[in-house]
Task: inverse folding
């Protein structure tokens, strides 16, 4: 197989992992919305934790994207 | 299609050779100097008129101070106050670096693993040295969580050690990958605009506008996450050992 074709296929396979990240981010914000709905006064405290959680999950998305770019462009 | 990764190449601007060491001023170095200059100008000029009821610029400087002071108070406690200068410098450096990189034709030096790994290593080694200086050999009890059955200890302790050692790696890769992926995506979509012409070019352009807005959020969020995790690791070092 040509190396360029293999790179394209590899890059495509590498981003399959982003599906889990979408579920994870949706889960974080679902629990954020329901916790603010239960207790609107907790919004300030909970929002900071939600942002931290979002960034940590997004980091996993970027690890997958990083591998994909590495496969595609080097 | 032009290579979207070409924007990350490091170019030497002023060649300086100190013996065996290549200490040239590169575009990364130039933007680091610009970032520090921007932070110094922002803070010193905003606080020049020490109004009791702050104006707009002074408000921004005071808000950034309060934000980090509150973060340290919540995550580290009163013992963390002596680390405020370091945490504040770290946050402002990463924030201004990420934001300045969003200016067209500017260089985002936090998109290089060398830069982010150096920062993460400083944080990791600093936190470990603080922990060992404070607790001595008792520091190693951190790797044995309390309240577990003794049988599981040989399994858990290597896992705990590995997850502790992976902290600088995850800290550096999170920032570097966010910056690199964001800028690469902006370039990729920008590369679609001209080939699609007048009829179709507005679609990737509007995606690019949305991406740039998203990148402003990511710039702030990544600086915040790096700093909050540093505070949490500092808390681990000072307490809970």
Result:
């Amino acid at each position: 197989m040509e190396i360029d074709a293999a790179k394209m296929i590899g890059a495509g396979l590498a981003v399959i992992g982003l599906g889990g990240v979408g579920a994870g981010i949706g889960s974080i914000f679902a629990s954020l919305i329901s916790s603010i709905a239960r207790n609107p006064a907790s919004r300030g405290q909970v929002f900071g934790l939600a942002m931290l959680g979002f960034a940590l999950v997004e980091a996993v998305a970027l690890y997958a994207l990083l591998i994909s770019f590495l496969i595609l462009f080097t | 299609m032009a290579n979207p990764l070409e924007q990350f190449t490091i170019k030497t601007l002023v060649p300086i050779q100190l013996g065996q060491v290549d200490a040239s001023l590169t575009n990364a170095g130039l933007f680091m100097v610009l970032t520090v200059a921007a932070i110094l100008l922002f803070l010193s000029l905003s606080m020049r008129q020490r109004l009791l009821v702050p104006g707009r610029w002074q408000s921004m400087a005071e808000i950034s101070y309060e934000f980090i002071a509150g973060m340290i108070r919540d995550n580290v406690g009163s013992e963390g106050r002596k680390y405020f200068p370091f945490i504040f410098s770290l946050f402002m450096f990463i924030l201004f670096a990420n934001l300045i990189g969003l200016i067209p034709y500017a260089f985002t030096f936090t998109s290089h693993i060398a830069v982010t790994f150096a920062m993460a290593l400083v944080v990791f080694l600093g936190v470990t040295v603080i922990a060992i200086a404070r607790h001595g050999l008792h520091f190693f009890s951190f790797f044995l969580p309390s309240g577990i059955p003794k049988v599981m200890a040989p399994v858990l302790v290597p896992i705990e050690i590995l997850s502790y050692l992976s902290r600088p790696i995850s800290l550096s890769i999170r920032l570097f990958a966010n910056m690199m992926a964001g800028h690469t995506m902006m370039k990729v979509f920008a590369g679609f605009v001209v080939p699609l012409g007048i009829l179709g070019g507005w679609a990737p352009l509007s995606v690019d506008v949305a991406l740039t807005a998203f990148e402003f959020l990511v710039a702030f969020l990544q600086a915040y996450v790096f700093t909050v995790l540093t505070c949490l690791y500092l808390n681990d070092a000072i307490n809970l050992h």
